[in-house]
Amino acid sequence: MKRFAVIGGAVAAAVLGTAATPASAQFYFKPKVLPTGRITGEEPGMLGAPLPGATREELDAAMVWNMRAALNVAALQCQFEPTLLTLRNYNAMLKDHEGELAASFATLGKYFRRINKTPKEGQTAFDQYGTKVYSGYSTVSAQRIFCQTAGNIGEDVVHTPRGKLADLAAERIREMRGALMSWGEQQFAYGGYSYTLSNFQPRLPDFANAQCWRKDEWQVKKCGMPAEGLVRTAARPDPMASAQN
């Protein structure tokens, strides 16, 4: 074993437990089963902010706008994994469902003008509502499950007939909201196996000990493996993950 190879192996062993792995469209062995079920739009927390006195048409418009906002955020946040097609699906939605999106925007605008004293106050309230909706779908800690869910829903949006976007939104918004929490891996309590350093540092080769070297090769039989400080152990449950599960 050459000296430079030993050093590289020791360093690699030291970071094995924390090295980042390439992202993929399927991030988990077993993802969290998210809550599902059709909503009416009157449930707390589903549409970004309450819409008191809203009609059925106005609630449908708000659900469509929430779906647009969620997929818009995903198109921006999830490009680290291009196979999710979040950007492509969002652009396809804008084209295929242009009429329903425009009608929903107009309906929401009329709602806020109706419940406020002046058109200016109504426009201000509408702008504030839009900001709350969009910011409500922004997530950092739950980015993977959010992006995975948005990719799945986005595919369904692409295949939804025109004029039926409100129906799809009613069926999937609860799931989209559930994906804003960080759930993590469900198959294993904490990653399957964890790698810990018994002495906090790997055992580096002893360059001063001539008996451990022969022609620049480390003598394993005499001196052991340089990275013996790395120990693989069975994974232990993460208390935070257990509390969320």
How would you portray this structure in words?
Keywords: Signal. Residues 1-25 form the signal peptide. This protein is mainly α. It folds into 2 domains: 3-20 and 197-244, no CATH class; 56-178, no CATH class. It is built from 9 helices and 4 strands; from the N terminus they run αααααααβββαβα. It has a two-stranded antiparallel sheet with strand order 1-4. A two-stranded antiparallel sheet has the order 2-3. Helix 3 runs parallel beside helix 6 and helix 6 runs antiparallel to helix 7 (165-178). The longest helix is centred in the first third of the chain and has 22 residues, at 56-77. Residues 3-25, 191-200 and 228-245 have low confidence and may be disordered.
Annotate the secondary structure layout.
Elements: H1 3-15, H2 56-77, H3 86-96, H4 98-115, H5 119-136, H6 143-158, H7 165-178, E1 193-197, E2 213-214, E3 217-218, H8 220-223, E4 230-234, H9 239-244
Antiparallel strand pairs: 1-4, 2-3
Helix pairs in contact: 2-3, 2-4, 2-6, 2-7, 3-6, 4-5, 6-7
Keywords: Signal
Signal peptide: 1-25
Brief overview, please?
The protein has nine helices and four strands; from the N terminus they run H-H-H-H-H-H-H-E-E-E-H-E-H.
Q: Over the alpha carbons, how many angstroms does the gyration radius reach?
A: 26 Å
Unreliable residue runs: 3-25, 191-200, 228-245
Through-space gap between termini: 46 Å
Mean pLDDT: 79
Instruction: Summarize the amount of helix as a percent range.
Output: 40-55%
Shape designation: elongated
Structural domain count: 2
Which structural category do the helix and sheet elements fall into? mainly alpha
Annotation, overall tally of beta strands = 4
* Spatial strand sequence of the major β-sheet: 1-4
